[in-house]
Amino acid sequence: MRIGVVTFPGSLDDGDAARAARIAGAEAVRLWHGDPDLHGVDAVVLPGGFSYGDYLRCGAIARFAPVMESIIDAARGGLPVLGICNGFQVLCEAHLLPGALTRNQHLHFRNRDQWLKVEATNTAWTNGFTPGQEILIPVKNGEGCFVADPATLDKLEAEGRVIARYVRGNPNGSQRDIAGITNEAGNVVGIMPHPEHAVEALTGPSLDGLGFFTSVLRALAGAAAGGQLAGGQQ
Amino acid sequence: MTTQQDKSGFAATDVLANEFEDGPDTVAKAEQSPDELQPFADLGLKDDEYAKIRDILGRRPTASELAMYSIMWSEHCSYKSSKVHLREFVAKVPKNTRMLAGIGENAGVVQVSDDLAVTFKVESHNHPSYVEPYQGAATGVGGIVRDILAMGARPIAVMDPLRFGAADHPDTARVLPGVVAGIGGYGNCLGLPNIGGEIVFDPCYQGNPLVNALSIGVLPVERLQKKEATGTGNIVVLLGARTGRDGIGGVSVLASATFDEEAEQRRPSVQVGDPFMEKLLIESCLELYDAGLVSGIQDLGGAGLTCALTETAAAAGTGMRVWLERVPLREPSMSPTEILASESQERMLLIVTPENLDAVLKVAEKWGVWATAIGEVTPAGEDGTPGRLLITWNDHVVVDVPPGSLADDGPIYERPLREPSDLILLQADRAETLPRPSTGAELRETVLRMIASPNLCDKTWVTEQYDRYVLGNTVLAQPEDSGVLRLDEETNLGVALSVDGNGRFARLDPYEGAKLALAEAYRNVVVTGAEPIAVTDCLNFGSPEDPAVMWQFARAVQGLADGCQQLGTPVTGGNVSFYNQTGAVAIHPTPVVGVMGLFADVTQRVPMGFPVPAKAGGDLLFLLGETRAELSGSEWAWVTHSHLGGRPPKVDLAAEQALGKVMTRASQTGLVSAAHDLSDGGLAQVLVESCLRYGVGAKVTFPAEGESAFVQLFSESAGRALVSVPLGHEKAFVALAAEFGVPCTQIGVTSEEATLDVADQFSIPLEELRAAWSATLPRLFGAPVLGGQPEAETAVRSVTLELTEPKQQPGGPIES
Lengths: 234, 816
What we know:
Chain A has helices at 14-24, 66-76, 86-93, 150-158, 210-224, and strands spanning 2-7, 27-32, 43-46, 81-84, 100-102, 110-118, 134-141, 145-147, 162-167, 178-182, 188-191. By secondary structure, chain A is α/β, with parallel strands linked by helices. Chain A has one domain: Class I glutamine amidotransferase (GATase) domain (Rossmann fold, 3-Layer(aba) Sandwich), CATH 3.40.50. In chain A, strand 3 (43-46), helix 2 and strand 4 (81-84) form a beta-alpha-beta unit. In chain A, helix 1 packs across helix 5 (210-224). The radius of gyration of chain A is 16 Å and the shape is globular. By secondary structure, chain B is α+β, with helices and mostly antiparallel strands. Chain B has a 7-stranded mixed sheet with strand order 8-10-7-11-9-12-13. In chain B, strands 23-25-22-26-24-27-28 form a 7-stranded mixed sheet. The longest helix of chain B has 21 residues, at 170-190. Residues 1-19, 252-267 and 784-816 of chain B have low confidence and may be disordered. Chains A and B meet through helix 1, strand 6 and helix 4 of A and helix 9, helix 10 and helix 28 of B. Chain A: Pathway: Purine metabolism; IMP biosynthesis via de novo pathway; 5-amino-1-(5-phospho-D-ribosyl)imidazole from N(2)-formyl-N(1)-(5-phospho-D-ribosyl)glycinamide: step 1/2. Chain A: It is found in: Cytoplasm. Chain A: The active site is at 85 (nucleophile), 194, 196.
């Protein structure tokens, strides 16, 4: 399986996302922001960082990169896409996911090892977890406060589209402690904490992040075997 | 505030006043008007220095030349006061076959394997950070990272030793949050993990905080870059940001003259950082190196284009022809002098062969970075004399000088030295005679008071603002004793880095204080299991024109040079920062020392926290080294008696080396589960930190003979470490310590109970320790460390309050 990792100018965790994909057993394929060709990848990760410096609104410029045109089309067609941190911001700017990520309420960048509770496990990126499972993943962001209007939040919860919530402390003030969400089809997932930094015992606080990358491989294998992609893709 | 700028008070507008009336000052005009009065004194040049410039040129300098000499001959660039002392490092450099580049290069480079080398350096950005904390600290990070990049390395981490005035002083509340946000804002956006550093408070830094920045990078040995502008006809390319009026005259930064009433049209002397541009600069330089497209490279930092042009040409003995109007500008009205003096950030100077130029421009275009050919390398004289630096601006010859005269032939001073007159009295006023706590209750209260004091408390409020995970190779980061990085995923080769200093010890005895800083950084590295291989230093002192300060400097350099020679770890590079003083009062002499160690297998690193879960019976706790009643200059004397006096702890570098051998061997053979260096705050601090790291308790019993419980807990004797040894390994560990002659005393066990017990003295629940330890910085600087932020609740609560469904998930920022 081939997992594409996009590099925008200012992407920082692209190498780490590629490493996580390799550790999970996939082939990591580097995708360049200016190249609309997805090189036949089976899934895409939009990594963390400060794309184009994020001097405007986080992800606002990256959303218009040539590679994003292809990714937006492919995601609507069912391609599994995971946006981590800045990648989550890009997915919201691209309207593949609802809501927005705003300045942390305490106005500081914050890096800590964060407990999350996994909720939706019927997505391409979370099917390897069990509902209610608590996982430890580093969070590090300055603009990670998830906001949406009440109707959208209600809809996300009613449809089971919250994939994880912060527990034992909310690091950035996100509404309803939301750490990550998915689209209706379950193939597009955005998460603020960094699963790619919890894939090795030597460098991470846990191995819990690996579950996101093994989940997508399982979903892809299932789809290849004639089944449906987890998350109800048609 | 006295700054270096007072000595080199270059303010562009002074020089430029008449520059546009009839075109810029040129060499031709200089020859025609030899007697024109020039503002050399305002630029910090002395009469004899100005005379020397006229002598070198055989005429008066042009306005641009005068500015260039004033910058390059400033203390910051020329090391004119420190040079005679810094020779000690070279004279006493230990034999070391690892060193590929040393003092004088942008950063020292040491080889760590057949294929890989590491480069690291620490530098100061003190004055800018006082004036404009955010940008000053941010560009401090940016500057040191470009030094690392210029050596051919990929920067892989940063560290920041920081010193502020009193923690509860209102100005500290202005400076500290800005400095921390600036370091985070730049380093996080650059994608470099921040893996350690120091945060120290002392009133002596009130008017002059110290913001030092360290960076480390890794490179394949064959990618090592040179700064020499070799090859006649090679092209000089300016890469990176456009040049603006920011940071003009900033080498020495910020004279009071730049803040007078007439200053409104002057731009800040503090540079403004753009970390996104620096990230693109890093990626484009690395791509250029790997494609073999660069013949020479130099970063633009202090002194901007002036420094880069003269140093690259001088290093090669060549000349250079530069067309200044080709430099891309942010403001087209900039004069040639301003272009030469600007310290705009995120720029590099490349020397490339003509046939590679197109490829270089293509790489720059890919990354969206400006690249402009601004000149070419010209030959040395036929008689072997060095070439000349010839700079024109719209066909006006504004500079025609021998580059070596700027870069290498600056003044050198042997400034007078005199031991501070108060030193004898200060050393006689020993802390060992101060009243001490004696009962268990008093000791308990002292422990809680000490761990809540600003220098010993939890620093999470600061370090949470730094990304420590990016790049995915951080093995250990703050609050561990050293930052530890994996260099190679295949071989698990790794490095440990620690940076330490103790201004109080150096005030009491600069020679021993410098050695103690070295010993502490060395010990911090060895307790993780790494083998120390190289040193960098940042020497922060007051005015070199004060003989007492100069004496402190000379003694500290001697101590550091002697120490490095004895430990076999060479000083590979560093930085001197003078004029750190407010009025007549200098800061404590503050040599900050960085030590780098090497791991053949970084998975063998030893963390500082007692391991969890604690086994039944626990791990055994051993104290390595000898505890003496050494309290002078200690944190205890300062916190409980506001006392500074006496002589600092004795430093025995042979004992430090022996301790190092025990620790590296113990880590390689897996004998220890945790180790923590003893320094500020003594054993009490180490016990608390190692317990709280993973929430594991300890039961401590001091030997009946020997020093009192108070001395055991609060002495700051050097050469000590606390280790935890899993049951079953204790015999082997004790034998190992004996083999190297390191005193080894069992003082307790880790415990399943969440308390710190000291037999016959006190018992403190870990929760109580944690509450005392972690409350201090949030109380001083706002914003609770854990959970949501009450002061910002209202905005979002107004949204969440609209949610009326009873089974709503807990939402919003409210933290229970």
